[in-house]
């Protein structure tokens, strides 16, 4: 089969090309970061001596330690609360179906395609009136609300597919709604929950707009938000900026590479459901 | 979606005494009612967050859009003035047209390239190379868009890798500061968006293609269809839903673009890469025109809905 072999050859070539295009910006970033600080490097040439100390400098001047801590705190605020309350709502809307649940679900769906910029202005004044501006809650609380349409839809889709017989059997054995939820349905929801957790982690960690608008102090922002401030500060020192950018995107990259199988399936599912 | 309604106890055994039957029915109804309230209570926390941080701000955006307000002093009612100004302002209208143009780069390019690549490698989607590519091609999805912006700003700078490559192959005449050039800036920003979306689109479409029954392809080949005929008669129609997903996700990314542009061009040079998301931010937090920013936000949200809703309708009912 000569044709099949040629098809395979073309296909593989195309795939490799696509991967090269994807990776080149990362490599450029690394190569540039290894040039002497303050220099204006030319393209993909490696310098004579590799300046690994740029990473240490960038780590310090970007206050990476604080940033990691800050992002972790924000993620720890957003993800568990979002998971918990969206699972409760998804369970009720998808499985228990009380009267009016259809209308409530449609109300949640309204927010599904909402761009964050549509509500950012009143959100700013609302957080100011609550006295929450410039602290991490200013990012955490709105993000939970903004993720609700997606999270509720995601969990509802999971609970809709759970057989009613299962619940009836548990009811027969005397389980009330809360027991039914915690003892039967929660353990069965772990795959759906972990995929949702991955997506929420990623979106929170990379959240930029809310961080920039609602928190002035870069060290209290998310990683992505802080990168914006770092660029303003070191916009002219290209190697240092590149080193800082690499440091800032490394944590997600590491988490991604460790859990890549879960990530890939979560990203694929997430896109389909969104 | 299953259509079970969860009516337990409908198959009751025939009771000799009608009074006990009534009593039982009443007890059942009470229990169902109580369960209904419990279920509604479970929705309350989610609804509360959604109400306070999405629905209320949404309503306030509408309200603000009818006022002239600098965020500090008393607001004055101006009716539809902000909207009329929007229609006559080149800067704001321009931002909307820029966002529409970005759809070409953020959406059409990755979807079409993704379709082409996925169709080419469909037959060996399980090969080792293809499995490795699932990790590599997702990298742009995992990093912050801001980081993508920084990377590409440097790649596209006057002495960046792209211009150096052009000069090296004798196309130096084409070299320019891509993001600083009035005509090239918007497509250049578009390239960044296309780079981010391409992997996701390709892998989504590939996942869709592997779900198509191979017998269909075989039948087509036996009937004498070539690769192109096969693509248009079998692959494309079977992928309606996946294409719909890719188009919706990328079109929203184009219209709501903010991070990449904030970092790479700040809307410049001039207003050549200004988009509504950025203009709302500038109007509200720099020129302190809250009402005008809100009117633009309302128009912007209506635009997003008007574009996304038909796409969803067209591609969802197939399944």
Automatic annotation (TrEMBL), chain A:
**Protein origin, superkingdom:** Bacteria
Could you say which protein family the record assigns here? Belongs to the binding-protein-dependent transport system permease family.
Key words, A-Z: Cell membrane, Membrane, Transmembrane, Transmembrane helix, Transport
The protein's predominant localisation is membrane
What is this protein's record name? Answer: Carbohydrate ABC transporter permease
Start and end of every ABC transmembrane type-1 domain?
A: 68-259
Q: Where in the cell is it found?
A: Cell membrane
Can you name the source organism?
Pengzhenrongella sicca
PROSITE patterns found in the cross-reference section: ABC_TM1
Write out the GO biological process terms.
transmembrane transport
Membrane topology value: Multi-pass membrane protein
Its cellular-component GO annotations read: plasma membrane
Q: Where is the signal peptide?
A: none
UniProtKB/TrEMBL annotation, chain B:
- Could you list the residue ranges that cross the membrane? 36-59, 102-124, 136-157, 184-207, 243-263, 290-311
Q: How does it sit in the membrane?
A: Multi-pass membrane protein
Q: Which GO terms describe its cellular component?
A: plasma membrane
One Gene Ontology term of the biological-process aspect is: transmembrane transport
Short name of one Pfam family for this protein? BPD_transp_1
The residues covered by the ABC transmembrane type-1 domain are: 96-309
Location, primary (coarse class): membrane
Cite the InterPro entries for this sequence: MetI-like (IPR000515), MetI-like_sf (IPR035906), UgpAE/MalFG_permease (IPR050809)
Q: Which family does it belong to?
A: Belongs to the binding-protein-dependent transport system permease family.
Q: Where in the cell is it found?
A: Cell membrane
Please state what the protein is called: Sugar ABC transporter permease
Domain of life, source organism: Bacteria
Keywords associated with the record:
Cell membrane, Membrane, Transmembrane, Transmembrane helix, Transport
